[in-house]
Amino acid sequence: xxxxxxxxxxxxxxxxxxxxxxxxxxxxxxxxxxxxxxxxxxxxxxxxxxxxxxxxxxxxxxxxxxxxxxxxxxxxxxxxxxxxxxxxxxxxxxxxxxxxxxxxxxxxxxxxxxxxxxxxxxxxxxxxxxxxxxxxxxxxxxxxxxxxxxxxxxxxxxxxxxxxxxxxxxxxxxxxxxxxxxxxxxxxxxxxxxxxxxxxxxxxxxxxxxxxxxxxxxxxxxxxxxxxxxxxxxxxxxxxxxxxxxxxxxxxxxxxxxxxxxxxxxxxxxxxxxxxxxxxxxxxxxxxxxxxxxxxxxxxxxxxxxxxxxxxxxxxxxxxxxxxxxxxxxxxxxxxxxxxxxxxxxxxxxxxxxxxxxxxxxxxxxxxxxxxxxxxxxxxxxxxxxxxxxxxxxxxxxxxxxxxxxxxxxxxxxxxxxxxxxxxxxxxxxxxxxxxxxxxx
Length: 441
Fold this sequence. Notes:
Largest sheet: 7 strands, mixed
Radius of gyration: 24 Å
Shape: elongated
């Protein structure tokens, strides 16, 4: 069986909006007399029943004020309520031939575990091949890969590449791939037996170009960095809860992560393969698919885990590359697309959704400030933002963090990660950066 997230019905979405609107309208009426708006509100109440033009103007002012100050908490409240809903279980009888690409330069410490996990998959062995691109390796990576060849169809490529980096390695593997579908993993990952089956299942629909699955953290318990990263992954960077929410809302497409995704080979080749000059070939692929309005589906049970950096030096180097690559690819997309307005709205939506931790941080500060100022209208606005953003993270941990609620204690680390990413994305990108694999230790 495979599990997929269906798009929410119109009735459910309308009901959610009505419920939240009613709640916020009541809260507005309750708190506005205790705020800087109190004098205006009293005048509004006294003239409202007269039906005069003045009353209508006051009504517009109050409505606009309510929208401005309650927009963010309403938005995150909407995300929170959209995080719930039934998933659809379907039987899997779709087993096309797969080519699993694994770039693995000098990965002797981890590649064996990755291959072992893939070979334990319940996907038919005669319907898949594993291509390990070990070009440039100076350790035992090729020999370790060859030792697994008796257990499955494994090919190890060691020919020199035209340039260094993951994208050229993936293109080299793609050039000889026999599968109709291409799946990408890093050499330090572990998958569940049912992962491939769930990752492939949505591709049974001809309109689906690619699928993505959630990514967890293998070395989660090492230190604060890995725990904070693990918490972050449950919501966004690891294709977590936000991907499920966006799919329920029918918001465009899922982003392609750098691993644990499946794409049609003919589709990938039509896009020119993996962008070798990009710092983030996954973002490049995401924007190309978005430009062609291709459907990318999130499969919540296609779970994989990876090793993440366990020290700040490696972590910061990785995230600088991510932020710089995202800036570059987004700039290219904005220059190419003919629908500038839609692209800008999409970007704003992405920035609000993806920076949940920053909104939480601001809400904490503003809650304290407005409590001291005794302005309960603004206090309610900031407090609701805080409540809803934390509630979203609780659901994220329950669904994509194996219910390890202790991770929530590392919310400050998540905030620190988000602030650093925001800083990297906001400043002028570094020039001359090259693709480099991030060491995990």
